[in-house]
Amino acid sequence: MSNKMNFNTPTSTVLYSIEETIKAYRKLSQHNISNVVPNITVDQALILIIIEREDKTQSEIADLVFKDYASMTRIVQLMINKNYLLKNIDDTDKRRTNIKITKYGKEIIEKLDPIIKKNREMALKTLSDKELEQLFKILNKITQNCKIIQQ
Amino acid sequence: MSNKMNFNTPTSTVLYSIEETIKAYRKLSQHNISNVVPNITVDQALILIIIEREDKTQSEIADLVFKDYASMTRIVQLMINKNYLLKNIDDTDKRRTNIKITKYGKEIIEKLDPIIKKNREMALKTLSDKELEQLFKILNKITQNCKIIQQ
DNA sequence: AGATATTATTTGATATATCAAACATTATTA
DNA sequence: TAATAATGTTTGATATATCAAATAATATCT
Predict the structure, then answer these.
(1) Which of B10, B14, B126 is nearest residue A145 as measured by Cβ atoms?
(2) Between A1, A10, A20, which is nearest B46 by CB?
(3) The whole model's pTM is what?
(4) Which pLDDT tens digit goes with each residue over A47-92?
(5) What integer pLDDT is reported at residue A124 of this predicted model?
(6) Is A121 an interface residue toward B (CB < 8 Å)?
(7) How much is the average pLDDT of A119-125?
(8) According to the 3-state scheme, what is the secondary structure of chain B?
């Protein structure tokens, strides 16, 4: 890589570069996940693992994984159909839905955990700890910049 | 940010962090683009601008914007419906389709150019040149790591 | 040349993203 | 308390992602 880079062509914007990375990562992840659990998507796998850790309502989970509530409704429905999740109306507030993982869902998580770990290791194996911290810091800056006009 | 970060929870993976950033960026971009050109998506805007610079076939453009060929077929069709693009079968190889921008499409590009520039500036305004280079370098490393098993 | 392989694109099926509107429930206010 | 506002979720409509299979055109091989 040269010292002076040109960031002024459409194919050199951050959006472009980040998109390239995330698509490559998703492809790798989906590939490895499908080897142990066919028929689960990367999104569903992440959601399953997050729900296991956090006992929250549907929209709280949606916020955690950056999903629109409408998307969340549909993803949860698909995961119920596959017997990974259960959903019941909250007793104290009937607008809310609580999501639980089924026994089968927990078995799936057992299979997924090492794969998720492996995916991360593969993707990051050539990065130093310093670079990893830089990455998080820079991404966080960009995220904050983008959120200014929104709330 | 503390010196020692914990990268072992699902919500601290790169996939997760990158996803957060790209979604914030997309939201900002879509918001600003919609102010000048209603009814165009971020993807369509990028594709329009890339086609203007590169006179290529549909699948070559798809590769440039990291789109699946199937997605590309559909996006191009929508952009033809909106009178941004024209498509004709290549004379020398009738399997190929050449994509051209209409006059109307070029007018749209005129409106989009400053917005795209502004989006980039907003997203990156707190980043130093050094950080920008670090970001590209790190993202590129991750992308390469993810591509190893694929071809 | 004729059979076969490869390439470029399309179509079908399903998952996800996003906005707007609908809906039921709960909270607030006049 | 009745009317209104706010909240949590769902549904509808449309755009995009992804895989597999289909299709048409071209290239290669015997």
Answers:
(1) B126
(2) A10
(3) 0.90
(4) 999 999 878 899 999 999 999 999 999 999 999 999 999 999 999 9
(5) 93
(6) no
(7) 93
(8) CCCCCCCCCHHHCHHHHHHHHHHHHHHHHHHHHHHHCCCCCHHHHHHHHHHHHCCCEHHHHHHHCCCCHHHHHHHHHHHHHCCCEEEEECCCCCCCEEEEECHHHHHHHHHHHHHHHHHHHHHHCCCCHHHHHHHHHHHHHHHHHHHCCCC
